Each structure stands twice: as C-alpha cells, then as structure tokens.
Amino acid sequence: KKVNNPKKINLKKKRRKKMLKNELLYFFEKIVTPTVQEFRDDPLNIRRGLLASIVLYHVVDYYVIFKNTFNSGGTELKRTEVTKELISVNPGFQHIQDVANASKHNILTLGKPLTTNSNQIARNGDGLFNAPLGEGFFLNQIEIIITLDDGVIVPLLNQVNETMVMWEAKMSTTFTEQS
Q1: How much is the mean pLDDT over the chain?
Q2: Which residues sit opposite 122 in a β-bridge?
C-alpha cells in the first residue's frame, strides 16, 4: 500500500491555494474590472450593463471556492449564505443578482427576486431627436433602469458601481487576511 508523504501533500495544497488565488484575481482584474469599466464608459448600452451585472454576480462563485480552500477545519461556505451576507452589506447586490439571472432565464420563478422579468431592465427613454415631440429626454437624463416588481425604479449603473466597490473592498480584505 502506498503511503502519502505529508510534505508532498502540503506542497500540493499550497500550489492549489496559489492557483485559486490567481484564478480569483485573474477573473476580477481581467474580466470583471474591464467589463464594469466598459459599462461606465457607455452607460446607455444595455448589453454592457447586463454583462457587468453577470460578471459581478459570478465573482461570488470564485470567492466561495477560494475561501473554502483556506477554511481549515471550519464549516464549508455555501454560495447561498455568502450571497445573503453580500446582500446584507450591499442591498444593491440583490438587483445585480436579479439582472444577471433575468438576462439568462428571462422569467425568474425561484427564490425571492425583486425583479422577475428581463423586460424590466430597459432604457428609460429615447434621446431628444429620436422621440415624439415633447417625450424626448436630454442625453444626460437617459439611463438603464431596473423596474422592480413593486414599481420602484433603480438605476442599473448605481447598482453596478456600488457592487464593484463592495467587491474591491472584499478583495482587499480577503488577500490581506491570506497574506
């Protein structure tokens, strides 16, 4: 019977931790950050807003895997529990989750979404020269909005910015803890 060398196992764990840290950082720095910046630079582009929401929402997948790797002897983090915690810190993360899920599934029937249909994510109007007389908006008044099921209107860019700030802070403390 083959006996495992504890030093070899420890080395494999260290490599795995480093690899997961690199994966989380890569996803955040090379995918999330530029995708969010593209939406910030082009805030009337619904596609960019949806993509920013999708990548911001899915950081939680990388984060949970990474944190569980460093969790020695504790209970394993569950994605749903981490998501609830993030929403308690940043309620806008619920909107990001709903937008990401609605963009994929169109109609949301599971959980407790505040937005249940992808058609609730839209631009709030046309420009001054593209709308009927008296119904146009100046360009600085147009934005991508989320209309919640209760009728409340939430600007998507604000939710994206708040969620990005939350993740930046989370990344900073996560890697400070692991150093």
Answers
A1: 80
A2: 145
Per-residue pLDDT tens digits for 131-173 = 444 454 444 567 888 888 888 899 999 999 999 999 999 998 8
Please give the backbone phi and psi of residue 144, each rounded to the nearest 5 degrees, phi first.
-85, 130
The three-state secondary structure class of 4 is: coil
- Interior/surface letters 81-120, b for 16+ CB within 10 angstroms, e for the rest: ebbeebeeebebbbbbbbbbbbbeeeebeeeebbbbebeb
CA dihedral 86, 87, 92, 97 (to 10 degrees): 90
Tokens of 129: 């020269």
- Give the Cα separation of 75 and 62 in Å (integer): 18
Does the predicted TM-score (pTM) go above 0.90? no
Nearest of 44, 68, 63 to residue 139 by alpha carbon: 44
